[in-house]
Amino acid sequence: MGATKPKKTYSTGAFFFVAPAVVVLLAVGIFPLLFAAGVSFHQFLLPKVHWSGNFLGVWPIYDAPLTWFDNYIAIFQDDSFRDALTRTFLFLIINLPLELILGLGIALLLHQQGNEFLKKICRVALVVPMATTFAVVGLTGRLLFDGNYGVLNYLWSLIFHSRPDWLADPNLAFFAISVMEVWQWTPFCALVLFSSLTMVPPEIEEAARLETAHWWQVLWRVQLPFMLPGITAILILRTADILKLFDVVYIMTKGGPGSATELISLFVQRIGFRAFDQGVASAQAIVFLIIATVLSRIYIKLVYKEV
Amino acid sequence: MAKSYLKTGAALQRSSWGHLMLLLVVIVVCVFPFYWMVATSFKEQAAILSSTPQFIFRPTLDNYITADQKFNIGACLLNSLIVALSTTGLSLILGTPAAYAIARFEFKAKQDLWFWFISNRMISPIVVALPFFLLARQFKLLDTQLVLILIYLTFNVPIVVWICTDQFRNIPKELDEAATLEGYNSFGIFWRIALPLAAPGIAVSAIFSFIFSWNELLYALVLTRTNAKTAPVVATSFLSGYETPWGQIMATGTLVALPVIIFSIIVSRQLVRGLTMGAVK
Amino acid sequence: MVAAKINMKKLLCALCAGVAFLSLGLSVAKAWSLEEASKDYKGTEIKVIFLDRPGYRATIKMLPEFEQKTGIKVSYEIVPYESTREKEVLDFSAQGDLSIALVDLVWIGEFAESGWIVPIDELEKKFPNLTDPDLDLNDFFPLLLNAFGSWNNTVYGLPFDNYSGLLFYNKTMLSQAGFDKPPETWDDLLNVYGPKLTGTGKFAFALQSRRGETQSCDSFMRFIWPWGGSLLDAKFKPNLTDPKDQEGLEFRQKLEKIMPPGIVDFDHNEAVNALAQGEVAMITEWSAFYSTLTDPKTSKIVNDLAIAPEPKGPAGRKPALGGFSLCVAKQADDKRQGAAWLFIEWITSKAKAKEYVENGGVSGRQSPYQDKDFVAKYPFIPPMVESWQQGVPEFRPRFAEWPQLSEIIAEWGTKMQDGQATVKQASDEIDKRVEDVLQKAGYYDGKKTLAQ
After folding, report:
1. Would you say residue C258 has pLDDT above 60?
2. Do A274 and C414 touch (CB under 8 A)?
3. Where along chain A do its domains lie?
4. ipTM topping 0.90
5. CA B223 – CA B144 distance, rounded (Å)
6. Which CATH architecture has domain A76-303?
7. Which residues 72-131 in chain B show a CB within 8 A of chain A?
8. Fewer beta carbons within 10 angstroms: which end of chain C, N or C?
9. Which among B157, B204, B275 has CB closest to A191?
10. What does the DSSP assignment read for C100-128?
């Protein structure tokens, strides 16, 4: 029975607004999640387990031995796993800020007055990188970066007179997949930040512009605070997505050369769909869920402020 | 009287040019790989693989014809369209009220609920593919559009909730109060005032929802066979492990990307609505 | 004399009886026809997964005939190769609806031991009326029937989509460098042919080595077997540090100087294309690429192409081996199993073999290739037939753990070529990890049969 702050309504009406979404998501998603969590505590090799009916007609029973935290321990002892995780974090730290900054720049460009027609085209053009099936993006990336018949190499050789092997060199391959990642997702950041920008009340913005000639001060003091929720959203979403990033990288390099571009989801694919060790793969997925959750909490604490 | 820092004529001209150039750069960078894909779809295999990339070439429709002969691309595109539109629509219907509630109302565990929506996107599909397969088989939903529509909700509703929560938050509360005085209940306010004003956010989340559903590959690969085969699956079916028929793949890729671009053109007009928000006051 | 006469009579009687039985038997055999056998199966639908490759396209062309004769509908789904095993394993583990299993030779151990496919003797016993008397398992190349369709001495499936590694070379480039025939041995290729064919932007050889199955099968294994090495020893312990293995792998490193730069990123496309564009003189690739190399739309060397079996190593000619068989899935009900068995027999039958080849497939039977005029139309057949005489069935171990081992080899094999690790270091790493995998799989505690 604490005192409630004025102007806040504890409303039961909220229930009806929220319930449909929650019910549907739970109905669809809760079983697979619980299944995966359960499996992570067993030794579950898909080709080797035998399905022996359903519990209560719903929950499948497998004869997989319960091994408690064995899978989790095995994960952390595996060098390759740690390497892949480190590599993925490196990828994250390099590319996410880049996407944010470029996205911010583009959002500002779209927000600035003038060139209305070009801005319209730009808004549509921004959708193009995300419009293509990721696997085809990977193939196009391959086509562009290929050492022999790639057009990028051709243009590069016109300027720099050399033909680097983008996809054969471990460092250049990492660079190549980073380029595709930034190309594909900067527009996402740009569009989210742009829609955040549209929420800045025009009066405040105009007033700020009258007070200072420097656009970056307008940005810092007036526009950015409105964009913080959007930035937080991007941080959380992209972190989760980079942890799951698979198709583009797999098609371009299959994780090679060596393991230069083996991001963590390629590693999980190796375990979950090649070795079909769903037990270990589920454990890894749960670990990532925890990592993503922790990182998200950190982002929210550091970045997010309601205006 | 504050000194006006508005730009003078010449400076305005310069910054306008700068603006133009930068916009052009963005457009070119975004579109170039796509252009390359489309161009490749019209090239013959030999032209695609020659060591000097051909910017000028003899176009051919062969790739499109062969690709269509091999696979029923039209049907797959239709499947994708139905799935993507349905799941986007459903996500908006489910997600916008939830976003509004989180933005406007106070209730226990609000933050946690918001976070729970987001966390639906954090699970790796590889480990939930099997349980989804089992579920779908149990309910005889394998190889149906419905199963994809439902599963895609798990990652689309969070997007809608996220983007729209912020939009709703920024609608001035005075409008709400004015509406209440006129006799609207919560739902009325939501429907008549909040939704139209949140149009940019709704548009953006609709675009993303559509794109993610359209491009989703793993679940579609695992859960469909022939009836509900979607566009990304057909685009990758050419990857036979030995040959890579670049032309055909790029042709399919082009066909697959077009509907998304068209959808975005249609929806993006909503993106600018918010600018008139101030005028409403 | 009487005794002799009686004996003659008895003999004659026996002879007559024998002839009567024989002709009865023959007439029964002659009476087996596909239409007859399948009359109970009209309207059955069987599902299978196919790839977008020539053999499958050939089959698809032939399906209407099968459906018309038997009333059985074969419902196929074309899937990317990388996802095929996933889809099949998911389907079989979750009681899905596939009736036929498309089994890559490296999957047969797993599929057989998981109990997902039905052995042929069982099928013959279960469906005696459906078994074609002309089936003649001996007509299949023994290597193929063994490697693609059998596991642990039991035959499960029939070779359907068959490949061999072959040496494709540009005979014009070779003759310009003074060679009138292809290299017999790997050593020749490196030391004699290599230097003369490399230079001014052209290279003697290209080895597809991209990380993935390409690295483990095409690039890595190719340099183990012909040197007398092996991946595993008799006790299934990894063997890569054996001098013969090391010799082969070191040889592969030496090849780099006659290959284009960035070879570690070359996949099949890049290698085939390099030859097709005239940049490289020789490649050892799968027989299936014959059509790409002889199509003017994709190849500039249509008239310069020649084919030979792969070069020999110190231990002989051990070409790369790959292929798929079709097996009946155990999860299918009896009706579908019968229908599936009929289809598998038909598509790999003697009667249909030539048509299969003419439509673009590669048959695994010996009989079609005995027709000299027929063979003359397909220059890749003689070297392929020769390769199939001497191959190694366990070119890649076909047990369930191969996919995991393949990943390990792919990762470290590419590191070896890239210079990120020395041959010895990488071999040690592979050995260590392979042993770990096989240990977990239970091969070392004596309970599991050592089959590969």
Report:
1. yes
2. no
3. 19-68, 76-303
4. no
5. 8
6. Orthogonal Bundle (1.10)
7. 93-95, 97-98, 100-102, 105-107, 113, 115, 117-128, 130-131
8. N
9. B204
10. EEEEEGGGHHHHHHTT-B--HHHHHHH-G
